[in-house]
Amino acid sequence: MNVFRRSAFFGHSNSIFGAPYAMPLVAGIVALSMTAICTFILYQSRLDAMEHAVDTSRDVALLAEHDLVRNFELYALSLQAVVEGLGDPELMAASPRVRKAALFDKAASATYLGSILVLDAHGKITLTAGAENPVDDSYSDRDFFKAHQESANLGLYVGDPYVSPRHGDSMSIPLSRRISGADGSFAGIVLIDIQLEYFQKLFSELSLGTDGSLALIRKDGTMVMRQPYDAQVIGRNIRSASTFKQFMTAPEGSFSDTSYIDGTRRLYFFKSLPNLPFIIMVAKAHSDIYAVWRQRTLLIASVMGALTLAFIGLSCAFGVQLKRKMRAESELAMLARTDGLTGLSNRRKLDEILDQEWRRARRHQSALSFLFVDIDCFKAYNDSYGHQAGDTVLATVAKCIGNHIRRPGDSAARYGGEEFLVVLPDTPLDGAQLIAETIRDAVCRLAIEHRESAFGHITVSIGCATWEPQQADADMATVIRAADEALYNAKMTGRNKVVLSARHRCGDRQAHG
């Protein structure tokens, strides 16, 4: 392949290979963009799931708070009514039936209310709301009794969960108020036991998810009730837990942490009850919060992955087809401008080259040389060796010509039959003569046998003409015709030689043998 043909082919490399290979790249960028958008949407959905969990937990906490506060207010009023009644001499002088009916209202018969007791200064039961007679139990060692004994200004006091001796193994929460004598001295307490079943039933009716948790915790860290229920957890102090430390930082809030009790990662919402010594905690497990989100993410990721792979695959297939199409078009375009036998430019391409180089030479005022190359006695060679051998000679000579025009701007074309035209831009006459002689000598060195030739082998004759800037009146056809005339002179004067156009100082060189 000659220099011109190589430059023509590789001049199209960007169009042949750039666009097809850009298709997968563009597809990859589009796929990455789609993935980024999808990832952002899923991330926002994850944040929304967490925000929704916080709102739901707050609602659950408010429901529990409303129920607790309402019931504790009722119990507190019942306790206050008993304390005030005990201070009324007329009431205390009435019959036991009247006194009991006046002291203990219908709250005493409420569900999950263990008992209402009046304790004296020694912790002994002096009066009960029930029909049974007071038993010989002492509460003097209980925290709620000691608290009122030591302080006269506690008001309503909520004690730690304890096993009430009046209710077997059932645990209760004690609510108590102090009874003071006329002189302000400690005269005992009024006590209400609220069974833990009340809290257990309340919490069990609230939806928390598979691994959720809900708890009522005293502000000193004592666990009053927890759902899911575990008897071993009730009464435990969790003051040292990281979750409880968070509870004490604000009246309410939310955070994520790992449970001190069962090691489950949860979202915690907590609220401190303003008039009660309790903190309500609602905790939703991350596994429950993100369960639906994970399913949705898996589905979307699977669909997006399949679509992305299909998109990239189709883009690659399209790129391959586009590459093949562009290569075929390039090859067809090249074939349309290339002589099929010699591989040099054909007459159509030659006309384009001549027009381009002539304009360039006139514009830059630079020399432009032409070489007409003709294979000597080629008809006789065809008659003697056959047309197939003649075609081989044409291709061999064409390759030899192409190999000896070195500059990228130089080009060669098959002019017709056994004739070739070499175009040498920016080449003066002496340079063109040197190139012509190099080609002539190289063909001789091929030593292709030709019995009908006087030289015994294939030779070429070359006519050379040059347009120079001072020849302003000459046109391209005139210069080419001059090169053709020089070739004719070479043929007529013995062949196997280079002859310069008569427009220049003519001389010829001939190789012998």
Q: Helical content, roughly?
A: 40-55%
Characterize the quaternary organization of these chains. Answer: single chain
Distance between the termini: 28 Å
Percentage beta strand? 15-25%
- Global geometry: rod-shaped
Radius of gyration: 55 Å
Q: Can you give the mean pLDDT?
A: 84
The SS-based structural class is alpha+beta
Helix segment tally: 14
Q: Largest sheet, if any?
A: 6 strands, antiparallel
Q: Using DSSP, what is the number of strands?
A: 17
Low-confidence stretches: 1-17, 505-513
In short, what is this structure?
The chain is α+β, with helices and mostly antiparallel strands. It is about 50% helix and about 20% strand.
Key terms for this structure?
single chain, 513 residues, alpha+beta, 6-stranded antiparallel β-sheet, 6-stranded mixed β-sheet, 17 strands, 48% helix, disordered N terminus
Word description of this protein:
It is built from 14 helices and 17 strands. Strands 1, 2, 3, 4, 5 and 6 form a six-stranded antiparallel beta sheet that branches. A six-stranded mixed beta sheet has the order 13-14-12-15-16-17, with helices on both faces. Strand 15, helix 14 and strand 16 form a beta-alpha-beta unit. It is α+β, with helices and mostly antiparallel strands and 513 residues long. The relative contact order is 0.10.
